[in-house]
Amino acid sequence: MAKRWRALLFCAALGVAQAGETDVVLDQRLNHVAEQLRCLVCQNQSIADSHAQLALDLKREARQQLAEGRSEQEVIDFMVQRYGDFVLYRPPFKSVTWALWLGPFLLLAIGLAALLYNVRRWDQQAEALEEQA
Prior knowledge:
The protein has two domains: 1-92, Orthogonal Bundle (Helicase, Ruva Protein, domain 3); 93-133. 73% of the residues lie in helices and 0% in strands. The protein has four helices and no strands. It has helices at residues 2-36, 53-67, 72-83, 98-132. The radius of gyration is 28 Å and the shape is elongated. The N and C termini lie far apart (110 Å). Residues 16-21 have low confidence and may be disordered.
């Protein structure tokens, strides 16, 4: 009877060890996927780095799909299909996402143009004050 219990415990321990190894692989795959997806709440973090509830839900969904046997690319494609290209941390350059790629440069150019305009205006005002004096 004791031998049966030892054998049963050995089998259970073996099963836990194998489950632990597959969990490590699953976690690595999940982390790889999570680094490629943007948190839709934070917008400047990947879901791997975010603690927002939506990011946690997306990670849970990705984990479930990976555990079901889907590939990493299939999970990413599912998220893009559901949330659009904006969910990708590095979205592709397309006509729909041009604002994501060019927006920061456009804002920088507008800011520089406004700064130059104001500097010229200040110089003209200073010259006008010097002429009056």
